[in-house]
Structure formats: structure tokens, C-alpha cells
Amino acid sequence: MYSETHTNYLIIGGGSMGLAAADYLAAHSGTGGQHVARVLDAHRPPHDQGAHHGETRLIRLAYGEGGGYVSLALRALERWRELERETGESLFLPTGVLNLGPASAPFIQQVEASARQYDLPLDGLDGSAASERWPGWRLDASMRGGFESRAGVLRVERIIEFWRQRVERSANVTLTPGARVIGLEPLEQGGYVATCDDGRRFSADRLLVSAGQHLAPLLAELGIELPLTRVRKTFAWFEADERYATGRFPGFSLTDEALGTYYGFPDIDGAGFKIGRHDSGQSLASGETMAPFGEHPEDIAELQQVIDRYLPGVGALRHGTVCQYIRTPDEHFLIDEPLPGLIVAGGFSGHGFKFASAMGESLGRWLASGRAAPELAGFGMSRLSGRDSQGPLS
Length: 394
Fold this sequence. Notes:
Layout: E1 4-12, H1 16-28, E2 37-40, E3 56-59, H2 70-87, E4 92-93, E5 97-102, H3 106-118, E6 123-126, H4 127-133, E7 143-148, E8 152-155, H5 156-169, E9 173-176, E10 181-186, E11 192-196, E12 201-209, H6 215-220, E13 229-240, E14 251-256, E15 260-265, E16 273-277, E17 282-284, H7 298-310, E18 314-327, E19 334-339, E20 342-346, H8 356-369, H9 382-385
Parallel strand pairs: 1-2, 1-12, 2-9, 5-14, 12-20
Antiparallel strand pairs: 3-8, 4-8, 5-7, 6-7, 10-11, 11-12, 13-16, 13-17, 13-18, 14-15, 15-16, 19-20
Helix pairs in contact: 1-5, 1-8, 2-8
């Protein structure tokens, strides 16, 4: 029979946001060897059971999902640069990012609006000019491009590894892997207790739950219904010629009204040209096993159709894999404190990782101080129930 272990703060989920918050607490919780926080994860990060695997993610600043994200993106880039200096490692590749789509596409219009509002450098060019500048593209003049020179690629799993190592070395934060939480309960005296599948119990005065696909089921036990859905997604690496090498080809987002919304990366470290589809996907229940890459006919076909149309130097498939998005109905993040001392953070999949450095700072401060982070106010639950019109796009 396990006894109950108490700390000041408890983080459930050691993925992108949970580990980022833990890293912030490790650096800002004072000294003296007291374990003020504990992180519980069902596995040992980095791993492929959440949404942070796949080696790389884009970071964009002139944000097409809404101008309300730009300040957070700018702070995140600043924090990524700080992390590079602290670790002495290459964690951000300044490849630039090219946003492509019809001029009428809302995403492209918002990219341009964000750049104007925040005075961000953005090179506007039509498809023909983009193809001339980057010969790996085959575009016509009907396409509109916006190139962000300050944007680029983050090395996700390398970042997660550094955060985990720093947390493990901390005197203030304890990382407990192999701890799969199956239940949450409020305590009579305040605070919460988490029960693991092996019977271990961990309690804390304040709690951050950033548990990906398990977030909604865990909160349902407390009577809190979170409108989150889990979606199976795929991405893959392909052979490619020298036009797609780092330094010759940027990261990209592509909106095609007939084919869908895609993202991609140059050939980094010889891994191959990487591309994935942002929209679409197959719905899954929490805990349901994801079919491996290639099990669905569209896994390869939906990527190949974009390659055939736009990318003349991309060749044979090397390998593909699966991942998961956890989405809200409006595809913006869900961050709130539905009960006193209980912070929830989810719905990040698809475009969340780039913000993790800044999000960890904000969530860590919120957890330690008990005061809501004002920069996260637009991501609250009230917008999804119609009680608050101030959402993240404002």
C-alpha cells in the first residue's frame, strides 16, 4: 500500500507544456533542496505517446491563426534563443517560413494583417516569384506567398530532452516517469490528489493538468466537461534533390482550396523532405490505438497529391509515422482554472509547440503564484460556451 506524497505543486503530463512549466519552476523556485513540485508522466519524455515527437516543428510569427497569438510567439522565440544560449546547442534553425495560398484565403490575409499590426518583416510575392526564388516550388501567379525571414524550425525532441535533464537535476522539481494517473479528487482541506494505476497517490496545493488525450477524461471525474477531440494525423519524409536542402528551401505552410492545408520542412541533416497535412484526419477515442502509417488509403495519397502538384524535386517515400492532435471546436488553445487551484492546459496539437517556451513561463508563474496569467486570458473555456466573446483572435 502506497502512502500519499505531497508537494506544493503537481503537474500531470510531462509533454511540451507540462515539462516547459516544470523547467520554469526548476529555475525559479528558490534553493535549499526542497521538492516544491512534481511532474507525473505515464512514460519518460521525450516519447511518441503524446504530441511532441517527430523531431521538428515550425515557429511562425506573422500568425495566420489570429493576431492575438503574435505577442506570445515573439516571447516564445526570445525564450528559445535563451535556451540555445543556456545549452550551447542548436535548437532553432532560421530557415524562414513561406506561407502560401490563394490571396483570398483567410489564413494568408491574417498573416499579412499580423505582419502589418506588429511591424513584422514579411516578403510578399506571387507564386511565380516564389518559384523563381525557391526552384523547389512549382507555383503559378494565382498563389500568394508571404515569407517570414525571422521564422524557422525548432528541434522538438532535442528541446524536450534538455528540459527533462534540467528538471531531473533540479533540487526543486521531481520528475516521476511511469506514473499513469487514472483519477483526480479534491481534498477537504484544499488541493488535489492524483491516483496512479499502480496505487500511488500524489497530492498538491495546486495542480496543472496538461495530459493531452487524457485531459478530458480526467477532468470529467471532477464534473468538468472539456470539448476536446482526439484526431489521428500522419506525416512523412521523402527523397528530395538539392533544391530542398537547408539554406535553399524554407519551411512552409500551404493552403490549397481543393487539396487542404499542409506544412513542411527542408531536408534537415539528411533526414529527407518532411510534409504533413494539418486539416482532416481520423477521430479517435482517448486511449484508442492509432493505426500505423499506411493503414488508411489517404495516408500516402493526400501527401503525394501535393508533391505531384507543387514540388517537382521530391521523390520516393522514405518513411511515415502517425501522431495525434487534441483539438477544441475552434482549434484554439484551452487554458483555464475551472476550479480553485486547478489549471488545465490542452487543445495545443497542430500549432502549439512553437509557444511552449513562453507557455511554460506563463503556466509556471500561474501555478506558483496562484494568479492567472493575463496573456492567457483569451484561451479560457467561456469563449466556447458563448459567455465571452474575447477569444484568442481578439
